[in-house]
């Protein structure tokens, strides 16, 4: 976030029942300015000095005729309008656009159309039930804290992927036989899918090494090369005997992942999977 960016210390939104739109809007503003305080009401106070969202038909409302719509046809809600304005204060332009596509748009669409959205339904659970004596303001605060946690975790995950680029690029530079070996387990799909790499090997949190096949593209779970069907679902001595690889101890039932005790055997499993695939192709 840019240090010279300033968000006012107060904001106003509608009172009554709250929804994912106004809750995530409040969480986003809190992320940018932790000191911000929220007021809720049926009408915006005259000459209000602060951010106004999801009410008042202003810049961050979407209930008026002619409200903004994205180029793909998805209408903006308050959350999307705020993200459009402030998202690049948190993520770079490319990542901010991706976050809008992958997360913000579905909530905006749900708020504008009433379509089902699981996260929006979870947020609605924070509203007090009909015969509750709970204060709506306290319930709104609890919902905002829940939404804030989600945003915080998502932003940390995105930033961690960006930090992984150096590690992944180094592994790709030294890759042999289309097998990239990471020095530490790190997110790699963003940087490797679409390249010539066919397998990625890395140290496992459980000890030893794991290796995964690389998908053919970012929109598919289909692998360039999967591990052999004869290995899938097998483990321990049985798998070692079938494969002929001494420390190969696990192969996922779907064929996308293996685990071995040594780096050499993890690489050997990838090489053998490729040889088996090529032999089948020739046949």
What does this entry look like structurally?
The chain has 283 residues and is an alpha/beta fold. It has two domains: 10-163, no CATH class; 165-282, no CATH class. Helix content is 42%, strand content 12%. It has helices at residues 20-32, 78-86, 93-113, 118-124, 136-163, 165-173, 189-192, 236-243, 263-282; strands at 10-14, 37-41, 51-52, 179-181, 199-203, 209-213, 248-251, 257-260. It has a five-stranded mixed sheet. It is elongated and about 75 Å long.
Task: Name a few traits of the molecule.
283 residues; alpha/beta; 2 domains; 5-stranded mixed sheet; 3-stranded parallel sheet; 9 helices
Explain the layout of strands and helices.
Blueprint: E1 10-14, H1 20-32, E2 37-41, E3 51-52, H2 78-86, H3 93-113, H4 118-124, H5 136-163, H6 165-173, E4 179-181, H7 189-192, E5 199-203, E6 209-213, H8 236-243, E7 248-251, E8 257-260, H9 263-282
Parallel strand pairs: 1-2, 1-3, 4-5
Antiparallel strand pairs: 5-6, 6-8, 7-8
User: Roughly what percent helix?
Assistant: 40-55%
Which residues sit in consecutive blocks of at least 5 with pLDDT less than 50? none
Q: What fraction of residues sit in β-strands?
A: 5-15%
Q: What form results from the Cα inertia axes? A: elongated
Number of helices: 9
Summed over residues and divided by their number, the pLDDT gives a mean of 95
Spatial sequence of strands, sheet with the most strands: 4-5-6-8-7
Brief summary:
The chain has 283 residues and is α/β, with parallel strands linked by helices. The protein contains nine helices and eight strands.
């Amino acid at each position: 976030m840019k240090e010279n960016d300033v968000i006012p210390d107060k904001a106003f939104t509608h009172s009554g029942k709250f929804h994912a739109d106004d809750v995530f809007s409040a969480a986003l503003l809190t992320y940018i300015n932790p000191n911000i305080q929220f007021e809720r009401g049926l009408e915006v106070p005259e000459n209000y000095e602060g951010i106004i969202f999801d009410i008042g038909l202003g810049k961050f409302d979407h209930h008026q005729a002619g409200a903004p719509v994205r180029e793909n046809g998805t209408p903006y809600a308050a959350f999307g309008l705020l993200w459009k304005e402030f998202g690049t204060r948190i993520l770079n332009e490319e990542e901010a656009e991706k976050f809008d596509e992958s997360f913000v748009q579905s909530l905006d669409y749900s708020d504008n159309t009433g379509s089902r959205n699981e996260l929006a339904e979870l947020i609605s659970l924070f509203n007090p039930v009909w015969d509750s004596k709970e204060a709506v303001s306290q319930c709104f605060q609890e919902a905002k804290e829940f939404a804030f946690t989600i945003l915080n975790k998502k932003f940390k995950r995105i930033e961690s992927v960006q930090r992984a680029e150096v590690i992944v690029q180094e592994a790709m530079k030294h890759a042999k036989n289309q097998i990239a070996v990471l020095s530490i387990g790190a997110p790699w799909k963003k940087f490797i899918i679409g390249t010539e790499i066919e397998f990625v090997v890395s140290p496992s949190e459980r000890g030893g090494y794991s290796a995964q096949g690389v998908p053919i593209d970012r929109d598919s779970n289909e692998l360039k090369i999967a591990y052999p069907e004869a290995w899938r679902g097998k483990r321990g001595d049985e798998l070692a005997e079938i494969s002929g690889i001494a420390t190969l101890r696990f192969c996922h039932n779907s064929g996308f992942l293996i685990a071995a005790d040594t780096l050499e055997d993890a690489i050997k499993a990838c090489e053998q999977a490729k040889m088996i695939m090529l032999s089948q192709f020739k046949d």
